[in-house]
Design brief:
This protein is 45% helix and 15% strand. The chain has a domain at 4-90 and 188-284: Metal-dependent hydrolases (TIM Barrel), CATH 3.20.20. It is of the alpha/beta class. The protein is globular and about 55 Å long. β6, α8 and β7 (217-222) form a beta-alpha-beta unit. The termini are far apart. It has helices at residues 20-29, 46-56, 88-114, 121-128, 135-144, 151-159, 174-183, 200-212, 227-239, 267-284, and strands spanning 4-6, 34-37, 59-69, 76-81, 172-173, 187-190, 217-222, 243-247, 265-266.
């Protein structure tokens, strides 16, 4: 039987609807051999995720997905693999990113109120069930209060990147995000590159730039990457000696069209990622920052 993996999924610790333990159980049901938790700007679900995976006997690694900015492009996401929660520097930086999210949420509440849609912080906390408040929680509450007919309308008209109430949050630049991960022994991978909106030549220049800051891989298989695009990205990974990774970007009910384990990602990608982690740590022993 062919061994398959999913290295891109989100839990209730950020904007998913499955708890870290539920993600592990679903992965086992689907017959996956290895998984990674990659919540947005937080490692809060890591301990539960890894413990459940160990108890259930499935390979798992702790990851993260950091939102970043680069020269006017929409949010660019950088995946980081092999996070160690005991690393204080990493946790402090993540706390900073989470605080930026909190400030953005407060401004978003104010913007929506100006538009006649009053959401209270306490209501959002209840919606998030004690987890990190994100825009999906805003959207769900807007539906419940009758301001919009569904979450798609909430995002497209109001809180999405092109919505009238959109508020950007303070972010690292993409090179800063890559450097931060690399310098802390976390393998940085450029997430779903074709979603950035760059043409091929610009993407190549971008990859070359990020490699100088420690980029180690690119996501070549993803639920929103076509087979044709995937082939081109795999060629780029080979050309620039980058590890190919892949995952569904599963969010549970917040992205109903995305199914865990789809499209299929071969286990060989996971092996390459683990080997790159070893090589990266070995090379870092001789580097000065």
């Amino acid at each position: 039987m062919r061994k398959l993996i999913d290295l891109h999924m989100h839990s209730t610790a950020s904007d998913g609807t499955f708890t870290p333990s539920e993600l592990v159980n679903l992965a086992i049901e689907k017959g996956l051999s290895a998984i990674a938790l990659t919540d947005h700007d937080t490692a809060a679900g890591t301990e539960e995720f890894l413990k459940t995976a160990k108890d259930k006997g499935i390979e798992a690694i702790a990851g993260i997905e950091i939102s970043s900015l680069f020269e006017g492009y929409p949010e660019i996401h950088v995946l980081g693999y092999f996070i160690e929660p005991e690393n204080k520097e990493v946790m402090n930086k993540l706390a900073y990113l989470q605080d930026a999210r909190r400030v953005r949420n407060i401004k978003l509440i104010e913007r929506l109120k100006e538009l006649g849609m009053e959401l209270k912080w306490e209501e959002l906390e209840k919606e998030a069930n004690g987890k990190l408040i994100g825009r999906p929680h805003f959207a769900a509450l807007m539906v419940k209060k009758g301001f919009v007919k569904d979450t798609n309308e909430a995002f497209s008209k109001y809180i999405g990147n092109n919505g009238v109430a959109f508020v950007p949050k303070e972010k690292l630049t993409t090179p800063e995000a890559v450097s931060f991960l690399f310098q802390n022994g976390i393998v940085p991978v450029l997430a779903h590159p074709t979603k950035i909106g760059m043409n091929t030549n610009d993407l190549i220049d971008f990859i070359i730039l990020l490699k100088k800051h420690g980029l180690q891989g690119i996501e070549v298989i993803h639920s929103e990457i076509s087979e044709k695009e995937s082939k081109k990205l795999l060629e780029l990974a080979f050309r620039f000696n980058l590890v190919p990774t892949g995952g569904s970007d599963f969010h549970g009910d917040n992205k109903l069209f995305v199914k865990m384990g789809q499209p299929e990602v071969p286990y060989t990608f996971f092996e390459k990622l683990k080997n790159r982690k070893k090589d990266m740590l070995h090379s870092m022993e001789t580097m000065q920052f």
